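Ticket 4471: requesting a sanity check on a complex prediction with pyridoxal-5'-phosphate. Repro inputs:
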Amino acid sequence: MKVPLIKTKLPGPRAQAIIEKDRQYTAPAYGRVYPLVMKQGRGMVVEDVDENLFLDFMAGIAVANTGHSHPRVVQAIEEQARKFLHICGSDFYYEPMMELAEKLSQLAPGTGTKKIFFTNSGTETVEAAFKLARFATRRQHVIAFDGAFHGRTMGALSLTASRSSHRAQFSPLVPGVHHAPYAFCHRCPYHLNYGSCEIGCVSYLEKVLFRYQVTPQEVAAIFVEPIQGEGGYIVPPAEYLGMLQDLCRRYGILLVADEIQSGFGRTGKMFACEHWGIEPDILCAGKGIASGMPLGAMIARSEISTWTPGTHGSTFGGNPVACAAALASIAVIEAGLLHNATEVGAYLMDKLNELKNKHAVIGDVRGLGLMIGVEFVRADGSGTPDGSLRDKVMRNCFEKGLLLLGCGESTLRLCPPLIVTREESTTAVEIFDAAISELA
Ligand code: PLP
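Returned structure tokens:
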């Protein structure tokens, strides 16, 4: 089977009819990216309703980590669905939820045991972390970072600061949230240089935030994405997370790692924190946890999981079918996908760096494993981000049959299923190269 294979002008006639209906009946809040109307998927391939075949390098926003409809995951879903669909895990018990909790407790970074709270999504996971942080510490304030994306419900949105349009007209948000610049060395918000900066983005918290805005004794938690996702696929410098953890421990502040996008093998380790030997007090998981079934998990160190029965709950969180899908997904990831993400990720990164040398409009290539961002800049050498060119390249790739997604101001992310091969990566880079050459 040749992939990609584009047979119609995009969107094709069937896709157009569905998009027309969608326009009439779905909420205009959805910010649709390009007119992809999916009919089915298998592994790395997405087929649309007009029988066009696309090579998927976005995995439904870093979710389909085991590929589309992995047979083992589908089998687990079918088997559980035949037994029962629901009983409410907040109120009663069932084996898949207990088994998954045990597995996540073992997988999460650090040695101690963990307590898991299950949700249906990333944003609900962050809500749970926010609530537990306040409950456990009896402190009210929290810190998050510019560029962060933690979700869109009111609590999580209060932490999110990746685009002001996400927050516009929704104020007042939850009080007590403070934002600080993130560790983005390529475009340092403090205009410092890595090597001589002494990681000023951590010391800023003590020198500025704790001095002028909030005492550290009032701060319940610092929420951080170990690699910023929606903000632009930004990998912080090696010292950053360790220093943040030290600072948290010094003041009794909980470190909350939002691994919703970076988790479940995406970076070549089960969780990105492991690259830096970090042990967060709370780890938020979602997206790739169940290969596309709606599930999130808040993984907290047992000692801080002090909340009492009834303080939090959910009708659907930890749904048995989703838990079965997660157990199967984790088994598939453990059976070789971490290695593949590291190996193919390094290959892809090399290929993209070759493109950077060829195209002046590529300002930066960054990432870990299969979480890779390519930043677009103006060709005039000024380094000015070029979001409009990024959007055009993404659309051109779509029309050539390669699915990509933007993030940050002018970055395209490559976050394929972790089953991707070198050959598929070569094909993707060739299409990417052609799309840029046509436009730049
Ligand atoms: N946290 C991070 C790091 C994310 O990338 C996302 C989604 O992109 C979320 C939280 C929110 O997840 P959800 O869309 O499942 O609510």
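Notes from triage: The longest helix spans residues 320-358. Leaving this open until the requester confirms.
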